[in-house]
Structure formats: structure tokens, C-alpha cells
Task: structure prediction
Amino acid sequence: MADPSKLERRGLLYVLSSPSGAGKSTIARMLLGSDSEIAMSVSATTRPIREGEEDGVDYHFVDNAEFDRLVAQDAFLEWAHVFDHRYGTLRSEIEKSLAGGRDVLLDIDWQGTQQLKQVDPDIVRVFVLPPSLRELRRRLEHRGTDSEEVVARRMERAAAEISHWAEYDYVLINDDAEICAAKAGAILDAERLKRERRTGLVDFVRTLTG
Ligand code: 5GP
Result:
């Protein structure tokens, strides 16, 4: 008999958004490290690669011409301008994970989330808020990967991004990355248990009722 804990279910798209510096990447890393059934969607971007980043792991780093080509080929599920660059979710990334029976984690902004919701209403949207604006600035400065000017602009953008918090299903306040990641994991577990995603339940219940 089928293992009841491994009943077939529909894979889900789990979106994490936040203003840059709210700790979303750390939470995503922790979630991926503790759960083998979810895979990251690696976006394509025209932004220059930062020190410590790896092409194909953090992003698929492409130039403007390549991004244009991908748009023309309808390769993106969504894409948007964020800061001075373009970022997009590749259909191939999502399809690869779902076909392999894994859920997909997307680190995208509010514009991408709105577009994705149009394409697939069944997405799970989680917004991560920083505990304060002061802490947000401290984290952006501490990261040391961006110039002062970029940090200042990201701070300006933070308020605009935060204004979209109410478009999300869940809101986490990140004053402790580990606790926040555990909560993000609890959301994932609960969403996986939703009846409508568990396509294997019908057959399983039949074995109980005869
Ligand atoms: P960063 O340059 O710091 O890696 O990312 C800047 C912002 O772009 C983040 O808020 C991130 O969520 C967003 N982003 C990354 N990939 C995508 C994507 O594929 N689509 C959209 N819409 N936003 C993205």
C-alpha cells in the first residue's frame, strides 16, 4: 500500500518578497537547507554579478540582448524592472522543479508576484518585513556589496516595496532569522497539507472506506 505520508500532491509555488536587506535571502537559504522537497527558482537578470555570487546558482546573469531574446521567446513566467535592471522568472526553472515533484521557492518582488498571481492563482505569497527602518539600513550597509549611493536608493525604494505588504497571504517580521525561517517552514508545511493540493487523497480515503 502507498505510504500515506507520501501521497501524491500538486507542487506549489512559494513566493518570498521583501524590501532588499530585510533578510529574505537568509531565510530562503535556511528553508532550502532544511527541506529537500523545495527548490529555488534561479531567475535571469541583467544586473552585474556581485562578489561571491555564482552564475547559474544565484542568478542566470545575462546581457540586455539575451534578456530581450528571452522575452521574445516567451521564456518568462513574469519579469520586471527592479532598480536599474531587469529580473525574470524562467518557465523552464519552474517546470523542471514541478516535474521532479518538488515545490518551488521564488525570491521575486511585488511586481513579479502580481504577474504570477494572474498566471497561477494558487501561489503562496509571503512578505518579509524588517523589524525597523533603522535595522534595514544597518543590514544594507553591513552587507558591503553595494555602494553608498545604491544603499541610499534601496532605502528610498524600501518604503515603496513595503507598501505592497497587504497583497500577500502571510507576513513575517524578521527580527530573528532562525525563528523567521522556522515560521516560513511552518507555512510551507501547512500549505502542503491543504486538501485541494493533495491529489492522492481520494484514492487513499477509498482504502479506508472500502
Ligand atoms: P538583488 O539584486 O538584490 O539580488 O535583487 C533585487 C530584487 O529583485 C529583490 O527584491 C528580488 O526579490 C527581485 N528579484 C529577483 N529575481 C526576480 C525575478 O525573477 N522577478 C522579479 N519580479 N523580481 C526579482
Summary: Residues 2 and 204 are 8 Å apart (CA to CA). The domain at 4-41+102-209 is CATH 3.40.50.300 (Rossmann fold). Residues 177-192 form the longest helix (16 residues).
